[in-house]
Structures are given as structure tokens and as C-alpha cells.
Design goal:
The complex is a heterotrimer of chains A (226), B (650) and C (427).
Chain A (H helix, E strand, L loop, with lengths): L1 E5 L2 E5 L5 H8 L22 E4 L4 E3 L9 E4 L3 H17 L15 H8 L10 H4 L24 H4 L14 H13 L4 H12 L5 H17 L4
Parallel strand pairs in A: 1-5
Antiparallel strand pairs in A: 1-2, 3-4, 3-5
Helix pairs in contact in A: 6-8
Chain B lengths: L18 H7 L7 H16 L5 E5 L2 H6 L1 H12 L9 E4 L11 E4 L6 E3 L7 H10 L8 E2 L19 H4 L17 H6 L4 H8 L2 H11 L11 H9 L7 E6 L8 H8 L1 H15 L3 E7 L3 H16 L15 E7 L8 H9 L21 E5 H13 L1 H5 L9 E8 L5 E6 L4 H8 L9 E6 L5 E4 L9 H6 L8 E6 L4 H15 L5 H18 L5 H17 L3 H5 L2 H9 L1 H10 L12 E4 L9 H5 L5 E3 L6 E3 L9 H5 L5 E4 L1
Helix pairs in contact in B: 8-12, 8-15, 9-10, 9-12, 11-12, 11-13, 12-15, 19-20, 19-23, 20-21, 21-23
Chain C lengths: L1 E6 L8 E8 L2 E8 L6 H4 L8 H6 L6 H16 L5 H32 L4 H7 L1 H22 L8 E2 L2 E2 L5 H28 L13 E3 L12 E3 L4 E2 L4 H4 E4 L8 E4 L8 H7 L20 H25 L14 E10 L2 E10 L2 E8 L1 H21 L7 H15 L3 H4 L4 E2 L2 E2 L2
Antiparallel strand pairs in C: 1-2, 2-3, 4-5, 6-7, 7-8, 9-10, 11-12, 12-13, 14-15
Helix pairs in contact in C: 4-5, 4-6, 4-10, 5-6, 6-7, 7-10, 9-10, 11-12
Classes of the chains: A alpha+beta (226), B alpha/beta (650), C alpha+beta (427).
Chain lengths: 226, 650, 427
């Protein structure tokens, strides 16, 4: 058995194991995306990074333990690295939460984005995830698809359409996909803009945002296939 | 390489232990005057040429690109008519003085050897005549010594008087430009394979000990102690082990390995065989870039010749050591220079792997593998032949020995130079490579290629060793040095190197795949005048994460160009962002093109060729004017104006 | 001559200044609200009827439920919508829990330090540690309940114009009731201890005029009638005939007078007018003529609200809910007034709706109504301290004035919702 110090706690794991096993024993979890048990250790997603005493960041799922190894799972550098990796992933991820096949299931990415306060995912990411009724599908101008997630969606979960009080999503591709979603459910641009003007009109980029929404709707109505 | 007489019994089935030593000192197994003369005569012939006549023409990639093949044909044409034996013409490798390419080295008995630089085929006849017929060395770039017998000697410096030669220590590059790289005989005649001979007389442990005492550190960039890597591998229990030469030199502008492999391939091979012996490997590989075909060819030939003469194969030199080598061509990815990716490439797909476990423990096909750089193995061969003290005599406390550096860019004398570690950048750049051209100022020195950093001019006295460079924000890398003068824009430089990394990223891990692209896009925006102060924060925070979180060293070092230029040249970034100006006048989107009315003759050529229709005639003055709003900054007008009236303004 | 000036008061919501002068023999007090104007009455202009409660609830973070409910009721009255009894009772329950929580925070953390002789909360812990800990526990429990039934701790969203936005489930209602039941003992303990510490100074209310909403059921439930201490009662829609608004030069808040005289609202006002509703509750003797007694009544209201809310929720769980939202009628230009007892007193929302949009709004918050009364009390306080021949102790006056302000628990952000500042209409 090998002695490993996880966040100041001592645990013992068999030799040949990875840091991840030690973390599990100590009860300190780290997120993983590409780790699949005992299959080949890819270590390519870089979410499970932990900090060693010499300052290096190493992936817990692949780094072997050695006696006296000290690891920390929650230092500022680790947090910054994880957060930035999630941002990287989101920057190339097609955000279509409302039609995501993980409906009623489990989206690790969304969990991570919320946990690390990464902006960019719209509010209506959790409604389909937890099986709540979608108000857009009922024709209401709910601002879920264009409002930033992070508030835990109390409004939609209580039947009230999202009024956008947390602020707009500004990513063009999300706005375009949202416009498609609205159009296919008969929600008009006019109504959406009306609701957005309640809390967003004072924002410095409101005009640009409005223009993006108008453009997105134009594209959606013009028949550009998604 | 052949037997002197019937008493020599060396063959592939029954190799003679003293085969190598016998070539130059022999015969060793019997005493015969005729055989002795045969041997020494052969050696002398190889070294000095027929009756002391020699015409050396370089045939390495750099020289060939400069036109050496044409020079060679010209030499061959006139050589007989001048009464010089045709076998005096010898094709050799590159000396590293690439700024002289193509060069000729002439030697006649009684005359000092003379080096002529930048030779054109048309000049060949004249040069040969002057030297061989008139015994006149004037016009040569340098001569070997002053004999007092040749004409014009006083006006020509000797090589040892020139800084570019004097300040070098040509430890591993001693044969480069001297021997014929395609002849194993040449190599042996000049003392080659002595290292292998000596190593095979020691135990593998003793060989490792010798390397340890020398203090040799890997020359590929990481600087890991070579002996330690070998020992770890040696201590692994597996019966199958491998040694690999990393000849996948990928840094743009770096060609030390190519130079060594093209000019002295056997030295590299010797080092590989010694390494194989030391760790207990049965097979070696040479992993070479397909984009460097001559390098691959020469290494392949060296392997075949070595096999022919029993230096590779079974029972090498009668010591019971079996070892063979295969040359593998890489498919052309920069990431293959990273050792785990190299192994993966041989196995089929070049993506790097998480280390630990390190290749010395789990490597090619899961077996313990040692991967060494070309130059490292060349050093191994040399120090085994001459003793560890010869290597440790140079260098610093923590890094012994010499290293080859390629100096390119805005210097007068581009080339590859070997200096002791610890030499300052100033010595290398200004004294050996001649500094920047007339009228320009040195701005920065980029070391280590796209993985390295920029050292600004005021830090030029930094000694070149692993630690000092790291403190200055750069890395030693494989030794590629690019010198930049005031015509270089540091933001553009960072962008260029980052673009290289973006293209070469293997895509396996998120930080490198996406983060480098973000860095590149941000840098591009800055060079186009669309940058904001926030972009600097993005560069720094994204750079930090890419550096710390990437899977392999490609990603880990990818932000170095950006981070080091941000550290040392922040004001240039600010000029691009706040003033929307490129002080060096490089970033085209920030330049203004203006027609000087004093020079304009009103021909209208520029307007005719302007793709944006931005140039028109001012009817009042008759001169042409560029509309800045429409100008797309393509630069066509600058090149096409017959009177050079179009000015680029910062 | 200035007798005292209170500024930068901590432990109140918002920014204010209270200045007491002696001007030619007469003592004058000025309650200056320096908090920046917020123009809420303009913001709701032009918005759809169902959006307005969302905006209104954001007038205040501490009593957002009160604004939310008042706003909804105003819109319903204008459009002729009836939410049904179940929903009205639900609104009462939610409002009561917020009143309890609001009072708790004010008493334990804002006002109490003065009575224990410390400056702030961290010092309070060393003097009345158990009280602080218990108060925090109680606070957390109340917030948990609010989140469960109102949807969010601040700015609720389960209620809608005309009904509920989602079918209520029995589970959360009973769970919330359970939480409240667990709190009851704790609440009693907190209040008992607080009352032992609350030794309020003496002061005679110079003009004991007050107004409050007459509850339609138990104490603190909503209603549609306003009672005054003069024995009058009027419908909310007639509020203009009795309550006059004015905008003083020196303050960003409007001030209100009842038939020309200063009037106060809040716990003391309610209790004074509606004592009969609390017959079976054991209320300690309190001098209802003393403005400082507001604190004592607040303390009493806390356990009452918790118990009453629990009862309502348990009752609601037994009944069937009629929560269907009717469609509003389009009656041209219509008006509606909604009133509610906010923690700090009477709150009035008045809208004019045309088509589906609000075209005019008037909001009267409890602090506005109290503004003139604070001035009157401050004047009385200064005069009482200067009497008996003693020279006026400026320091003591300053201190007592600060305590007086805190006794009213003014909420300045609510008070500055105006659209008219210093006589200039901003529209």
C-alpha cells in the first residue's frame, strides 16, 4: 500500500493505482469527462487536473501514485484550469439544450458549467433535462433560450415564463438556434423583443443584441435549415 | 575497409574484434610492412587526396539549394583540363557556414587550403586556375594557414583568425564539411567507430557510467541527463527493449540535426549502437522526417553500409552483441518530435500520451524504450571515443559540453555553429554570426522555435544554458535561434509561431486544440487593429491554462512565444491596441499606403492594378491618390509602381 | 440653529438624513431621503399587465412579496379578474412568512444592537450570542419556506395575475407547513429573549393618527378596506380623498398626510386598529402612544405570523385549488387599486390599464406615509429632551434620533420609487 496525502488527508491505496483512486478513498471528487473506468487512460479532457506539491498540474485519472505524494484538488490554479477548459469546450459546442437528446437525463457539461460559473449556456437547458413543460412549445415568449443559465430556473420551474432577469446570452450561434426554436413554435419576434425590453433595455449592448435577434429571426424565417 | 592481405580473417560470420582499429592502426594481427603501407596509404589517400590534391564541394541540402550541384558539374568539366586528377574532387557535407553556400575548398600540395564562398558556376574555372595554376589565393574567403608560399596570402585571413570559426568548438561537428558522408571508409579513416569499439570492450554499466561522468544532457531540448534515461531503461526487467533516434527535427528554421545527419551520419549511427548496447536493446530505429529526404537517404545508406561491414547485425565486432537498425520515415507532423507521439507514430497513430509512465519504462509496443536526439547520440559517439573528460572540459557547472545552434534571421552570417554551453547569446549572435545587417538594430532573439521564447536585446548577455534561459523567459530548445531586428514586429512574430502550433496541434486535448486557436485569433485581431485591452488579459489567462493543462509539451510550450513577447515587448502590443499602429511597419492592416506626389509621374499603373479601385487621379495636380477608406492594404501598388512612389507609413 | 443632524445611518435600508433645527424658537425636523430616485412609476408605463408585478416586486428586495401581491391585486381589480379564495389565502400565507422574516431581521440585527449597547452585529454576538444564533436559524428556516412556496427567496414567481402559474402540489405545501411548525418554538424563544432586552425609551406620539388594511379573515390577511384611527373606513379606490401626497423640496421621497395631518403605519398602527383580531394572543403591555413601541409589536407579530401561515398552508393542502387564470376583459381604460399590509405598513399600488398595458401608475409605500410622522416624532423628541430646564445634550439627541429612525424601520429604496423629483416631472 502507498501513502497519499489528499488535501491534507492521509489515505492508503494499492501501488500501481492512479491518483483518482486515492481521491475516491479520501472522498474528494474531481470532475472527469473522458475517464471510463479501466479502459486505456486517455487523459485528454484535462478536467481531472490536480495540483502536486511542486506546482505541476497532472491528470488524476492517469498519474500513478507514489509514496508520500501530495495532491490538492481545489487550488486557484486548478480551478482556473478547469473553468477555462469548460469554456473551451463550450466555445465549440453546439448549444441546442432544448432539443438535446439528453432530455430527462444527465448533462455533465451543464453541471460543470454551472459549478464553475461559466457563462454561455441558456436558461432553458435544465427544463428539458428535468422533464419540465416547455413554455415555448406552448407558444409563449419564454426567454429561456436566450437568457444566461445559473439561477436554477425558478421561474420556468414554477410555470412562469423566463423574463430574462439574469441577462442575455450573446453568442451568435445560440441566438440563431433560439430563433429557429421560436419560429418553429410560432413565437413571434415582436413578443420576444417586448419581454426582453423589460430587463435588458438598459444594457449598453442592447441595440446590438436587438439587431442580432432580428437578424437571427430573419435567418430562421428565411428558411435556412438548421 | 577491405582486407590488406589473406591473413586478415574478418568476415561477417567471424568478425574480428579489432576491425575498426585495424583500419587506421593496422594491421594488428600480423606484422607486414607492405600491409602497413597499404593501410596508411589508403588512409592518407582518403584524407589528403591523390598526391595531395583536393577539391571539396559540399552536397548537403543547404548547399544543393544554393546551387552546389551546378558548381560540382562546372568543377568536373574543367578539372581534367587543368591537370588535376579527377578523383581529387570530393563531395562533402556542410561546414555550417551556410552563408557561404555554395563554397569550394581547394588544396594543392605545398599550398595552404583555401576556402571560396558563394561560388557561381561561371566563376569555377577562374577560381581553379588562379589557385592551382597561378598558386594565388587572393579572392579566397579564408585559408588554413600561412605558408608564405602562396601569392596573396597576406590579404586573406586564416580560418582561425575569424571569429566565426575561432569561437566555435567543433566537437561533434568536426567531420562536417570534411568527410564524404556517403562513405563509411571516410568516417573510419577520420577516427570513426572508435567509440563503439571502446564501448564494446566495456560492460554496458561502465558505458553508462562514462556517460554519467561526462554530464551529457539530452540535446533535444528537455536537457534530461542521458545516463539516467539509459539506466532507468536498463533496469527494466523486459527482455525486449528499443532505442530510437529522434531525427524528426520539426522546428521551423532549425537544421542542426539535418546538418549532422547529412554530413556525418555514421557518427549518429554509432551513438545509436552504443546506446543500444548500454541499455540492452536488440533493435534500434531512426525516425526521420520525410520532408528532409537527403537526411533520410544518407542515414539509410549509413545503415546499409554499416550492415555490410558487420557494424550492424549479429555478433557486432565479435562481442556477442546483436543489434540492427531500421529507418522509419515520419508522416510529417510536428508533434512527432514529442517522444510519446513519436512512439505512437511508429505504432500507427501520432498522438501523445500522458507521462508517467515514461517511455524508458513503458515505450514502443509497451517495452522499455530510450529516445535520444540526433545530436545527443553524436556526442555519445564522440565522448566514448575520446573519453568523458574531453566532453566535460567544456560547458558550465550544470551543463557540460558543447551544443550546436542554428542562427538564422536578420544576421549577416546564417549558419550552424557549435559552441560550449554557457557561451553568451551576444557572442553567438554578434561575434560568430556577425550581428544584424548594416543600419539595423537588434531587437530580439527567438530561441527554441515555436516552443521557445524571445529574449530582448538588452538581455543578450544571458549565457546559453538551460537554467539561465528559463529565467529569461525562453528555453534552449533544440537550438534554433532566429535573430530579429527592428523590422520585425513582435506581435506578428508571436502570431506566426502560434499559427504554426495551431496547424500542428494533434487535437487530442482541449487546452491545446482550442486554446491555441483562441490565442491565434486574438493575436490576429490585434495585428488587424481590432484588439482591445481585454485581449491582453485573454492572452495571459488562456496562455496560462494552455501551458499548465495541456497533455504534452507541444501544448505546454505553445504559449511561450506569446507570453515571452508580452513580457518583454508589452509596449508593442499596446501600440497595436491603443494607438492602432504597428511600430515596425509589418502588420499590413495597420499601415497606410500613400503616394508621394514628389515622385509620382502620373502613369496610372497603380490605379489600373488596384483590386479595390482605391486609387484615382487628382485632376488638379495630375498625380494619383489612394483613398484610405477603400484601400485593402494588399501592397500591389508598392511593388508595381515603376518609380517607387508608393510609401508605406506606420 | 441646528440641534442635531443624523446622517449616514447604518442598520437601515438606504440613505437618509434627519435634521432637527431650532428656527426662531420653533423646533423643526426634516426627514431628507437622499437615496437616489428610481422612477419605478415610470418604468411600468407601457408594459403589459402581466409584466408589471415582476417589475413591482423588484422595488424592494426585503419585501418583494408585498409589492408583488399588491401589484397583482391592483391589476386584477383593474381588469375585473377574480383569483379565487384559494389563491388569496395562498398569497396571505406567503406574505405572512415574509413579514415574520422581515421583522426578525429588523429586530434582531438592525435594532437590537442599540438596546444592548453595542455598535454592530459582531459585537452583538458577544453580548447576546444565543439570540443571534437562534435568529439566524429562524431566518434561514423562513427563507427556506419562502423559496419553497414562492419559488425564490427574492422576487417570487409562483403567483400570477388572476391565479397561480402552476398547479400547486400538496407536497410542497405540507413540507412548508412542517418547516414552519418546527420554527414555532424557536420563534417564541427568540421573541421572549428579545423582549427582555428591548427597553424602549419614552416618547409621546404627538399625532397618533394611523391607518391599516382591514383583514378579510385573520390578522394580517389581505383585505379591501382601509381603516383609520379616526374611525373612518374607505375603499382603496378612494384613497386619494383621504391620503394626500406631496413632494418636498428637500427629499427624494413623497410624503403623505391623512386629512392634512401626519399619519403613521406599521406594526403599532395595525395593532392599535385591529386589536380585536388578536384577542386570544397574549400581548405584553405596550404603550401604544410611543413610536418606539413599534419594535415590541413587531416582536409579537413574528410568532403569530409563523403559526398563522402554517395553519393556512395546512388548510390549503386539504382544499381543492381553483387556480385557473381567467382571461382579462378588454374594457378600454380601467383603473384598479391593490392594498396589502407590508411588513412596514400599508402599501398601495394604483394602476391605470388601457388595452393590455399599464399607462399610468401611482405607488404609495409605508415609508412615504411615515415620512411626515417621523418628522413630527423627531420634533417631539427634541422638545422633550430640551425641556425640564436642562440644557440640550446634543449627543444624546443624536443617539435617540438614530434609534427613533430605526424604530420605524424605513425602507428608503421603496420610498424613492417616484417619477417626480423636486417638483420636476421626469417623463
Amino acid at each position: 500500500m502507498v501513502r497519499v496525502i489528499v488535501n491534507g488527508k492521509e489515505v492508503h491505496v494499492p501501488e500501481g493505482e492512479t491518483i483518482l483512486a486515492a481521491l475516491k478513498k479520501a472522498g474528494d471528487a474531481v470532475p472527469t469527462l473522458c475517464f471510463f473506468g479501466h479502459m486505456y487512460r486517455e487523459a485528454s479532457c484535462r478536467m481531472c487536473l490536480v495540483e502536486l506539491s511542486n506546482g505541476k498540474l497532472v491528470p488524476a485519472c492517469a498519474y500513478p501514485v507514489s509514496d508520500g505524494l501530495e495532491v490538492r484538488t481545489d487550488t486557484p490554479r486548478v480551478r482556473e484550469a478547469r473553468r477555462t477548459v469548460v469554456e473551451f469546450i463550450l466555445s465549440i459546442h453546439r448549444i441546442r439544450c432544448w432539443s438535446c437528446p439528453r432530455k430527462g437525463g444527465h448533462c455533465e457539461l451543464l453541471k460543470l458549467a454551472t459549478a464553475y460559473w461559466v457563462e454561455g449556456i441558456p436558461v432553458c437547458s435544465s427544463c428539458p433535462l428535468y422533464g419540465k413543460d416547455c413554455l415555448v412549445v406552448k407558444g409563449e415568449p419564454c426567454l429561456g433560450p436566450v437568457t444566461l443559465a445559473g439561477c436554477g430556473d425558478p421561474c420556468p420551474s414554477n410555470g412562469s415564463p423566463c423574463i430574462g432577469c439574469r441577462g442575455p446570452v450573446t453568442r451568435r450561434d445560440v441566438l440563431e438556434a433560439a430563433a429557429q426554436f421560436y419560429v418553429s413554435n410560432g413565437v413571434e419576434l415582436r413578443d420576444v423583443l417586448e419581454v426582453t425590453s423589460m430587463f435588458w433595455e438598459g444594457l449598453p449592448n442592447y441595440n446590438a443584441l436587438k439587431a442580432s435577434l432580428e437578424e437571427a429571426f430573419r435567418k430562421a424565417l428565411g428558411g435556412g435549415a438548421d | 575497409m577491405s582486407r590488406c592481405c589473406g591473413k586478415c580473417w574478418h568476415s561477417l560470420e567471424y568478425p574480428c574484434r579489432n576491425y575498426i582499429r585495424c583500419r587506421t592502426e593496422g594491421p594488428l594481427c600480423h606484422d607486414d610492412q607492405r600491409c602497413r603501407e597499404l593501410r596508411s596509404g589508403r588512409a592518407r589517400y582518403i584524407k589528403e587526396g591523390p598526391n595531395g590534391y583536393r577539391i571539396k564541394v559540399p552536397l548537403a541540402s543547404c548547399s544543393i539549394a544554393a546551387g552546389a550541384k551546378e558548381v560540382l558539374s562546372a568543377v568536373k568539366e574543367v578539372v581534367n583540363s587543368l591537370g588535376i586528377p579527377s578523383d581529387a574532387v570530393k563531395t562533402v557535407g556542410c561546414t555550417g557556414l551556410c552563408y557561404l553556400d555554395p563554397w569550394l575548398e581547394l588544396k594543392a600540395p605545398g599550398m595552404p587550403a583555401a576556402l571560396y564562398g558563394n561560388v557561381k558556376p561561371a566563376e569555377v574555372e577562374g577560381i581553379l586556375k588562379k589557385y592551382f595554376i597561378e598558386n594565388d589565393v587572393s579572392g579566397a574567403y579564408a585559408i588554413s594557414e600561412r605558408t608564405g608560399k602562396a601569392k596573396g596570402e597576406g590579404d586573406v585571413p586564416t580560418l582561425s583568425e575569424l571569429d566565426v570559426w575561432r569561437l566555435q568548438v567543433r566537437y561533434v561537428s568536426r567531420n562536417c564539411g570534411v568527410i564524404n558522408p556517403e562513405s563509411i571508409e571516410d568516417y573510419v579513416a577520420y577516427g570513426g567507430y572508435r567509440g563503439l569499439d571502446r564501448a564494446l570492450r566495456m560492460s554496458p554499466e561502465e558505458v553508462i557510467e562514462e556517460v554519467k561522468k561526462s554530464g551529457l544532457r539530452g540535446r533535444g531540448g528537455a536537457g534530461f541527463p542521458t545516463w539516467l534515461k539509459w539506466r532507468i531503461c536498463r533496469n527494466q526487467p523486459s527482455k525486449e527493449k528499443y532505442v530510437i533516434v529522434n531525427a524528426d527535427e520539426g522546428d521551423p528554421g532549425a537544421f542542426m540535426n539535418r546538418l549532422l545527419a547529412e554530413s556525418d551520419p555514421h557518427r549518429v549511427l554509432e551513438g545509436l549502437i552504443i546506446a543500444g548496447y548500454a541499455v540492452g536493446a536488440t533493435k534500434g530505429f531512426i525516425f526521420v522526417r520525410a520532408e528532409k529526404p537527403l537526411m533520410a537517404e544518407r542515414l539509410q545508406k549509413a545503415v546499409e553500409d554499416a550492415r555490410k561491414h558487420g557494424i550492424l547485425g549479429r555478433n557486432i565486432l565479435g562481442r556477442g552483441f546483436d543489434f540492427d537498425v531500421e529507418v522509419i520515415l515520419s508522416a510529417g507532423a510536428f508533434v512527432c518530435g514529442e517522444e510519446t507521439a513519436l512512439i505512437a507514430a511508429i505504432e500507427g497513430r501520432a498522438t501523445p500520451r500522458q507521462r508517467p509512465p515514461y517511455p524508458a519504462v513503458v515505450g514502443l509496443w509497451g517495452k522499455p524504450t530510450v529516445i535520444n536526439n540526433v545530436e545527443t547520440l553524436a556526442h555519445v559517439a564522440t565522448l566514448m571515443a575520446e573519453g568523458w573528460e574531453s566532453f566535460a572540459a567544456y560547458g558550465t557547472e550544470r551543463s557540460k559540453g558543447t551544443k550546436m545552434f542554428c542562427v538564422t534571421g536578420a544576421v549577416r552570417r546564417t549558419g550552424a555553429y557549435e559552441v560550449p554551453i554557457g557561451t553568451t547569446l551576444r557572442t553567438l549572435v554578434e561575434r560568430i554570426a556577425g550581428g544584424v545587417k548594416e543600419g539595423r538594430k537588434l531587437k530580439a532573439v527567438q530561441i527554441g522555435g515555436p516552443s521557445g521564447g524571445c529574449v530582448p536585446a538588452h538581455l543578450l548577455d544571458t549565457p546559453i544554458d538551460y537554467e539561465s534561459l528559463r529565467d529569461a523567459g525562453a528555453i534552449m530548445g533544440s537550438g534554433g535561434i532566429v535573430v530579429m531586428d527592428d523590422t520585425a514586429c513582435m506581435v506578428d512574430v508571436a502570431r506566426y509561431f502560434t499559427s504554426f502550433i495551431v496547424a500542428e496541434s494533434c487535437g487530442k486535448c482541449f487546452p491545446c486544440r482550442i486554446g491555441t486557436k483562441i490565442l491565434y485569433d486574438t493575436l490576429t485581431r490585434i495585428t488587424e487593429g481590432k484588439g482591445t485591452l481585454e485581449d491582453l488579459e485573454i492572452l495571459e489567462s488562456v496562455g496560462r491554462v494552455v501551458r499548465d493543462a495541456s497533455l504534452c509539451a507541444l501544448g505546454g510550450t505553445a504559449p511561450n512565444p506569446v507570453l515571452s513577447t508580452l513580457r518583454h515587448f508589452r509596449d508593442e502590443y499596446l501600440a497595436h491596441i491603443i494607438d492602432k499602429k504597428c511600430p515596425a511597419g509589418v502588420c499590413t492592416k495597420l499601415l497606410k499606403y500613400r503616394i508621394d506626389p514628389g515622385k509620382c509621374v502620373g502613369c496610372g499603373t497603380c490605379a489600373k492594378h488596384c483590386p479595390a479601385g482605391a486609387i484615382s487621379k487628382d485632376e488638379g495636380t495630375g498625380k494619383y491618390v489612394i483613398d484610405q477608406e477603400k484601400c485593402v492594404k494588399c501592397g500591389t501598388c508598392v511593388t508595381i509602381c515603376p518609380v517607387n512612389a508608393v510609401m508605406k507609413e506606420v | 440653529m441646528r440641534l442635531a443632524r443624523v446622517e449616514e445611518v447604518d442598520r437601515v435600508f438606504g440613505h437618509l438624513e434627519l435634521e432637527v433645527l431650532k428656527d426662531g424658537g420653533e423646533v423643526k425636523a426634516f426627514f431628507k431621503v437622499t437615496h437616489g430616485a428610481r422612477f419605478i412609476e415610470l418604468t411600468v408605463n407601457g408594459r403589459l399587465y402581466w409584466e408589471v408585478p415582476y417589475i413591482a416586486s423588484r422595488i424592494c428586495g426585503a419585501c418583494s412579496i408585498a409589492h408583488y401581491v399588491a401589484s397583482i391585486r391592483a391589476v386584477e381589480h383593474a381588469l375585473g379578474l377574480d383569483a379565487g379564495e384559494w389563491v388569496e389565502d395562498f398569497r396571505d400565507a406567503v406574505n405572512m412568512v415574509q413579514i415574520a422574516q422581515n421583522h426578525l431581521v429588523h429586530l434582531a440585527f438592525l435594532a437590537l444592537p442599540d438596546y444592548v449597547g453595542v455598535q454592530g452585529l459582531s459585537d452583538l454576538k458577544s453580548r447576546a450570542g444565543r439570540l443571534v444564533v437562534n435568529s439566524m436559524k429562524l431566518n434561514t428556516a423562513c427563507l427556506k419556506v419562502i423559496r419553497l412556496i414562492a419559488g425564490r427567496i427574492v422576487n417570487p414567481n409562483t403567483l400570477g395575475v388572476g391565479g397561480l402559474l402552476r398547479q400547486p402540489f400538496k407536497g410542497p405545501l405540507l413540507k412548508a407547513a412542517d418547516y414552519l411548525r418546527e420554527c414555532e418554538a424557536l420563534a417564541k424563544e427568540v421573541v421572549d429573549e428579545a423582549l427582555t432586552l428591548l427597553k424602549v425609551p419614552e416618547l409621546k406620539d404627538p399625532a397618533n393618527n394611523c391607518v391599516a388594511v382591514k383583514p378579510r379573515k385573520a390578522y394580517l390577511t389581505t383585505g379591501d378596506e382601509i381603516l383609520t384611527s379616526a374611525g373612518l373606513s374607505f375603499k382603496p379606490s378612494n384613497y386619494r380623498e383621504h391620503l394626500e401626497e406631496a413632494q418636498p423640496e428637500y427629499s427624494n421621497s413623497k410624503v403623505v398626510a391623512l386629512s392634512g395631518a401626519p399619519v403613521h403605519v406599521g406594526a403599532r398602527a395595525r395593532y392599535g386598529l385591529l386589536r380585536n383580531y388578536l384577542r386570544d394572543l397574549n400581548v405584553p403591555e405596550a404603550d401604544l402612544g410611543n413610536p418606539f413601541s413599534n419594535l415590541i409589536i413587531k416582536a409579537v407579530e413574528i410568532p403569530y405570523c409563523i403559526a398563522a401561515a402554517r395553519e393556512i398552508l395546512e388548510d390549503l393542502a386539504r382544499r381543492t385549488a381553483d387556480t385557473v387564470v381567467d382571461q382579462p376583459r378588454d374594457g378600454g381604460e380601467v383603473e384598479g387599486v391593490g392594498v396589502v399590509e407590508a411588513p412596514r405598513g400599508l402599501l398601495i399600488h394604483h394602476y391605470v390599464v388601457s388595452g393590455k398595458r399599464v399607462v399610468n401608475a401611482n405607488i404609495i409605500t409605508p415609508t412615504e406615509i411615515n415620512a411626515r410622522h417621523i418628522e413630527a416624532s423627531a420634533k417631539a423628541l427634541a422638545e422633550s429632551l430640551a425641556s425640564n430646564g436642562r440644557p440640550l445634550n446634543a449627543g444624546e439627541l443624536q443617539r435617540k434620533l438614530t434609534m427613533l429612525v430605526r424604530a420605524y424601520d424605513p425602507c428608503l429604496p421603496c420610498a424613492v420609487h417616484v417619477s417626480v423629483v423636486r417638483g420636476r416631472k421626469h417623463a
